Fold this sequence. Notes:
- The structure holds two protein chains of two kinds.
- Chain A is an alpha+beta fold.
- Chain A has 13 helices and five strands.
- Chain A has two domains: 7-36 and 145-356, MetI-like (MetI-like fold, Orthogonal Bundle); 45-139, no CATH class.
- In chain A, the strands form two sheets. Chain A has a three-stranded antiparallel sheet, with no helix packed on it. A two-stranded antiparallel ribbon of chain A has the order 4-5.
- In chain A, a hairpin with a 5-residue loop joins strand 2 and strand 3 (88-98).
- Chain B has helices at 42-50, 76-80, 98-104, 114-127, 144-156, 174-191, 202-208, 226-231, 236-245, 247-251, and strands at residues 3-12, 16-26, 32-35, 57-62, 65-66, 81-84, 162-166, 194-198, 211-216, 219-225.
- Chain B has a six-stranded mixed sheet, sandwiched between helices. In chain B, strands 2-1-4-5 form a four-stranded antiparallel sheet, with helices on one face.
- The N and C termini of chain B lie far apart (39 Å).
- At the A-B interface, helix 8 and helix 9 of A face strand 6 of B.
Amino acid sequence: MEKPRSETGLAWQRFTSDRAALAALWVLGALYAAALLADVAAPYSLKDESREHPYCPPTAIHLLAPDGRLIGPHVRGMAMAYDTFRRRVYRATPEVYPLRFFGKGEPYRLLGFLPFDRHLFIVDAPGRVYLLGADSRGRDIFSRILHGARVSLTIGLFGVIISFGIGLLVGGIAGYWGGRVDDVLMRVCEMVMMVPGFYLLLALRAAVPDSLDPLQVYAAIIIILSFIGWAGLARVIRGMCLSLKERDYVLAARTMGLTDMEIIVRHVLPHTISYSLAAVTLAVPGYILGESALSLIGLGIQDPYASWGNMLAEAMSIVRIQFAPWILWPAFFIGITVLSFNVAGDALRDAWDPLLKGRGEST
Amino acid sequence: MLLKLEGLRKSYPGGVTALDDVSLDLMPGEHVSLVGESGCGKTTLARVVMGLVAPDAGRVFFEGREFSSVRARRGMFCRKVRMVFQDPFTSLDPRYSVRAILGEALRLEPRMTRGEELARMRGVLALVRLPPDILARYPHEFSGGERQRIAMARALMSQPSLLILDEALSSLDVLVQQDILSVLEELPRRTGVTYLFIAHNLRAVRRLSRRVAVMRQGRIIECAGRDELFSSPSHPYTQALLKAAFNYEVSV
Lengths: 363, 252
């Protein structure tokens, strides 16, 4: 007999044999790594702007100098002018600004504490490198997407952790104990679920003062989003616990003197994991979109701090999208993040489900 | 007196009377079998004794002390009275290794060192004739008979003096039943445990028990020594039961 495998091990094996899920996992891994290392990966800081380059289109990376010599990757200078219709146009100037990999740029603190000033790639001032174009104030959208990923990607994660912690606990207690505890907890859940999500979001945001610093706003958004999210999970977990508590191994644990909380945590909640893990993964996009919605209408993260939602606030005018379609890039990143979480969540559920139907009964 | 049940009553919503004034005495070493058709209240009785179901009325005594309230049974009672469930596929949590499953049974025991715990685990595995190297494995890797032995090992971890076997053989096939039965025959000699053996397999009942109680519709209708009951059953229901199980003997 080969190495013993737990159900978790078997589920993981199943999960990793799903190629779409693996791809989604890699995408998410790359996005989170980029968010973690945003300071290094982004050429510019959050506060950097260049008033001479509003809505500058993505800069081309050239290998050959204007005279045809091979000089390696570089960008040209960009000069703004107005055409006859008074529209902004950018023309490349002959100046050459080589891309410097791991060159010195604006200083920052790596991972929040290590003083550092190297960037993955950068060009010397006054040259500007806009990989994905610039916004209305000449800020680099690529850099802001990386910085904004910190907010957008972690709000989903923290929000989900908090609300699922509450949801699991409330659902577990209500389902396992039943009776009056169950009645009270479920009525509370229903009250939370009764209010349409987005209006509850707005109402709760209105209850939080406007004059908060960005970190407080960030925390407030997480708390608000998790307050909305826990009730749905609690109800489903409760339903599962109602049936799980009649399983023989739960009864056996009771006869052996385990306390109710021990039984809930050891023998009841772990069996809801197939559902809750998938639900957690599938819920993350909701939080990301919730934050985007709040930031989009100006109630979330404020300038100059970036989140994918508040970057999209600029894209609320059709005219701007027409002339500077690259301001929609944050939407693309929201899209692939949401998609990856959904694919991974589906695969997680598929990986667990066959196991719950009593593996090994054929032996 | 090991276990004394007095006037236990339990009815379920919908008017089903599962236990109707059940009283039963068990002396140490006096393995009592509880037989009867499905739905006669055998399992309810086991669950009431274990505190999984609260009775409507009645008292439970163990070793002379009263443990009538379910709460009182946490502690000494839980350690000394253990139960083996019918279906070994549902009585072991698939998420835990054998070691964790056995370790959980020590919940109410005085603190032990890891070495003592391991020694205890190896000891009970030997009692149920399982090799000691299975501790790291998971329930889904075992057959039904092996799982039932793990469940028995778990029940023996706290060195109980009373073991309630609730149809512990019923879901196993015949050969495996023989196997488990021979383990069960040996256990009382080696551990001093007494059985309350709930079954409808009368051959197993004859091999394991000293006294047999026949249950029907929530009542114990006859309770007698094994040989007496098998040779001269007094209640017509018992006669019918025996006839159905051993009709060749009755016809002789």
